[in-house]
Write a structure and sequence with these properties.
Strand content of chain B: over 45%
Number of helices of chain B: 0
Largest sheet of chain B: 7 strands, mixed
Largest sheet of chain A: 6 strands, mixed
Order of helices and strands of chain B: EEEEEEEEEEE
Shape of chain B: globular
Distance between the termini of chain B: 36 Å
Oligomer: heterodimer
Shape of chain A: globular
Number of strands of chain A: 11
Radius of gyration of chain A: 13 Å
Number of helices of chain A: 0
Strand content of chain A: over 45%
Helix content of chain B: under 10%
Radius of gyration of chain B: 13 Å
């Protein structure tokens, strides 16, 4: 079945780069997503990558996809305190009728 | 502005009571979803509906029920059969299959606490 794994915590200093990693199992996923959740709120779509791409850059965000290893990463350049949140990766799966989410990575940005 | 609204934001339930969480969207999305979020466990799918008057169980449907009488609305009832209902509940919607660039749109969540 589908399974998406992430590490639970990441701590970085303000101004450094953050790299959040994710592994997934369903190689037929068409899209892979990164969502951000601030405390007590819903999830916001940050970015996505189509499965035939290796990399996507969007301002401070860089998504890398290694289909062979089923590994997805999100790099946040020049991390700010406002980036402190939980980050979820998600895959669309082969059927595409629902998303499977990872456990979420709590990013803490320290001054 | 289009969006998805969950209410109430906070809800308290006594043991043995049923409670209903509201989810309404004006995005004209076909599909709607309910997830439960617990610390360290990510999001777990409770129920989803791809069209009006039809819905499917997710991974943790026991103790929950839903209805989809209107395209805009997908209420979730937490029944007394759900033994550990304290959690953060998230509703989401998508244009048909979410496996496209738009993914899901989420509501702001309802925090349910058993007292």
């Amino acid at each position: 079945g589908e399974d998406v794994e992430q590490s639970l915590f990441l701590s970085v200093r303000e101004g450094d780069s953050s790299v959040i990693n994710c592994t997934y199992t369903d190689s037929s996923s068409t899209y892979l997503y990164w969502y951000k959740q601030e405390p007590g709120a819903g999830l916001q779509l940050l970015t996505y990558i189509f499965s035939n791409m290796d990399m996507k850059q969007d301002q401070r965000l860089t998504v890398l996809l290694n289909k062979k290893d089923k590994h997805l990463s999100l790099r946040i350049a020049d991390t700010q305190t406002g980036d402190s949140a939980i980050y979820f990766c998600a895959e669309s799966g082969g059927g595409g009728n629902k998303l499977t989410f990872g456990t979420g990575t709590q990013l803490k940005v320290e001054l | 502005d289009g969006g998805i609204t969950q209410s109430p934001k906070y809800l308290f339930r006594k043991e043995g009571q049923n409670v209903t969480l509201s989810c309404e969207q004006n995005l004209n999305h076909d599909a709607m979803y309910w997830y439960r979020q617990d610390p360290g466990q990510g999001l777990r799918l409770i129920y989803y509906s791809q069209i009006v008057n039809d819905f499917q169980k997710g991974d943790i449907a026991e103790g929950y029920s839903v209805s989809r009488e209107k395209k805009e609305s997908f209420p979730l009832t937490v029944t007394s059969a759900q033994k550990n209902p304290t959690a953060f509940y998230l509703c989401a919607s998508s244009i048909g299959n979410p496996g496209r660039s738009s993914g899901y749109t989420f509501g702001s969540g309802t925090r349910l606490t058993v007292v």
